[in-house]
Amino acid sequence: MSRLIFLFAIAAVVYLLLKSYRSNITDKKQEFTEDMVRCAHCGLHLPKGESIRAGEQYFCSAAHRDARQG
Ligand SMILES: [Zn+2]
Q1: How many Å lie between the centroid of ligand 1 and the Cα of residue 5?
Q2: 31 Cα–ligand 1 center, Å
Q3: Dihedral, 49, 46, 23, 8 alpha carbons, nearest 10
Q4: What does DSSP assign to residue 39?
Q5: How far, in Å, is the centroid of ligand 1 from the Cα of 22?
Q6: In angstroms, what is the span from residue 16 Cα to ligand 1's centroid?
Q7: What pLDDT is attached to residue 10?
Q8: pLDDT in tens, 4-62
Q9: Which of 17, 44, 47, 55 has the CA that lies 20 to 30 A from 38?
Q10: 40 with 53: CB under 8 angstroms?
């Protein structure tokens, strides 16, 4: 039974990859430049969607956000 779930998970991942690949083709430039932000604490570059925002600054983790503020 777990095998079925595993196959379903793979299908879902493939679907999502194809979907993101398609959207990348349509506005590749915009996404690439706008999606990356820099952690204000350690300088690490990471996708905006994975970053933690505090005010006007972005952080790679909650620990770095707290380190900056506290
Ligand atoms: Zn950081």
Answers
A1: 35
A2: 22
A3: -70
A4: B
A5: 30
A6: 28
A7: 93
A8: 999 999 999 999 999 888 877 666 555 555 689 999 999 999 999 999 999 999 999 99
A9: 17
A10: no
